[in-house]
Design goal:
By secondary structure, this protein is of the alpha/beta class. Helix content is about 40%, strand content about 5%. It is built from eleven helices and nine strands. The strands form three sheets. It has a five-stranded mixed β-sheet with strand order 5-3-4-8-9, with helices on one face. The protein has a two-stranded antiparallel ribbon with strand order 1-2. Helix 1 packs across helix 3 and helix 1 crosses helix 5. About 0% of the residues have low confidence.
Length: about 475
């Protein structure tokens, strides 16, 4: 009787495990098919999601953008049809193992990106919950592979065969041990590789800002003043309007000829030759390499604010990206659209007093106006973005736009990591680990740590407050 009860319990257990394995098989199959089809509908978006991880080169990301969704569909359909189940389970183990390793590397590097592994419907900013879900799927896949009746089994070979060096099969346990060892090695190597790559990206960002601060130094020497922020957010740079108070465009536009972008400077609209809609759209998506921080993880072209009609230009739908903004002071200033035309004599310019920054509306700041010392005052730095890989309102106007959220920032707001909670527009920020890259008025470039005291950071944006601003700067 006892044996019969034991046998019945064992049969019930086997039956339950069989039902459970079928349930998980169908669930994983549907998950893979759904995610694969969603990604195949928008392969470029999936490529961007993979590239944001910054683990594999861009050409490999392009291949994976199509290859991984296709593999999802093939594995999912095979599982649904119950074909080659053990091989499909093994493929699932590999996929989920790779995804979990990539997600862990993102957490370790402090990035904030969306997980694009299983389709938009399952996407979320990578966190502990995301890694836990992927780990659960990995464990389920390993269990299904182990439960599969068609899996390779251990073979008990005769004594003479065991002495032979010619093995005809490997066991599942040996294969899983190999996969685990490879995964462990990847997990150990990735941080070092990513650290080296991030160091290179930070160096590139530093070189960009060094070119910009040297360019504004040349501008000050030639024109007896640093560039201003222009006239207002409805204006862009116009090469027939000169420099200083006469130039309606941004500080970036003013230094284009000094960073080997003369052709782009001279292609701007003018009073005599305003841009047509097509010409203006083509102009504002022109990429300026010196304005791109490789660590930001944003696209080269981004959606524009379609509600703005630019003087002597037009409305636009896309803009080229700029990651750097000028130090407009330690106190937030209101901005406006500016006059309706070059000859608008009825417009009353805002009375700003004496702002503390290096550039503001129609400013003419000189070296002699930086009484705190040029080594102690920020000229430009990286812009904070709402989420790594996702554009925000500080990235929706042309880089040549006049006084706007596109091209100016204030040290009144503490430096934050990109994607941090509590951030808002017109603050400096960075995607680099540890701190942001800043160009100073003297032409030097430094790293300012995220841990800098708010008061110290604020004084770095004020050119005449009597403080030297030292601290937490490399």
């Amino acid at each position: 009787m006892g044996n019969e009860n034991t046998l019945a319990t064992r049969n019930a257990s086997i039956s339950f495990l069989g039902v459970l394995s079928h349930f998980f098989r169908i669930a994983i199959a549907l998950l893979l098919i759904t995610s694969g089809l969603l990604h195949l509908q928008n392969v470029p978006a999936h490529f961007v999601a993979i590239a944001n991880y910054r683990i594999v080169p861009v050409p490999v990301s392009r291949f994976l953008g199509f290859g991984l969704p296709s593999l999802h569909v093939v594995v999912g359909v095979s599982l649904l049809l119950s074909e080659n189940r053990w091989l499909c389970y093994l493929s699932s183990v590999g996929l989920f193992g790779i995804y979990m390793t990539a997600q862990l590397s993102v957490l370790l590097r402090g990035l904030r990106i969306d997980c694009g592994c299983l389709g938009p419907s399952a996407s979320s900013t990578i966190g502990v919950d995301t890694v836990s879900k992927t780990a659960f799927l990995l464990i389920v896949s390993i269990w299904l592979a182990w439960q599969e009746e068609d899996r390779p089994h251990c073979r008990v070979l005769p004594h003479s065969s065991r002495q032979s060096n010619d093995r005809k099969a490997i066991t599942l346990i040996e294969l899983l041990v190999c996969i685990s060892m490879i995964g462990l090695l990847i997990a150990l190597i990735l941080p070092a590789v990513q650290s080296a790559r991030e160091s290179g990206r930070r160096t590139s960002c530093s070189n960009n800002q060094r070119q910009l601060v040297l360019a504004v130094q040349l501008h000050e020497g030639t024109n007896k003043a640093f560039p201003s922020t222009g006239w207002g957010y409805n204006w862009v740079g116009m090469h027939d309007q000169g420099t200083g108070k006469r130039q309606p465009g941004s500080w970036i536009y003013a230094v284009l000829p000094l960073i080997e972008q003369t052709s782009l400077w001279s292609a701007s609209p003018t009073v005599i030759q305003p841009h047509t809609s097509d010409n203006f759209q083509r102009y504002v998506i022109e990429k300026v390499p010196q304005l791109i921080c490789p660590s930001k993880g944003l696209g080269v072209t981004l959606p524009a604010n379609v509600g703005v009609a630019y003087r002597y230009g037009s409305n636009i739908t896309m803009v080229s990206r700029s990651d750097y903004a000028v130090n407009a002071g330690d106190k937030l200033l209101e901005n406006n659209a500016g006059p309706v035309s070059v000859n608008d004599v009825s417009f009353v310019w805002p009375r700003l007093g004496n702002p503390s920054g290096m550039a503001y509306v129609r400013s003419e700041v000189r070296h002699s106006d930086v009484t705190d010392g040029t080594t102690n005052v920020i000229y430009c730095g990286e812009k904070w973005s709402e989420r790594t890989g996702l554009a925000d309102r500080g990235y929706d106007q042309p880089w040549s736009t006049g006084d706007s959220q596109e091209s100016r920032r204030f040290t009144e707001k503490i430096l934050l990591r990109d994607g941090s909670k509590g951030g808002e527009l017109e603050r400096f920020g960075s995607s680099h680990a540890g701190g942001g890259v800043f160009g100073f008025v003297d032409g030097s470039v430094h790293i300012i740590h995220f841990s800098i005291h708010p008061t110290v950071f604020r004084t770095l944006g004020n050119r005449f407050d009597g403080n030297d601003g030292v601290g937490n700067i490399d």
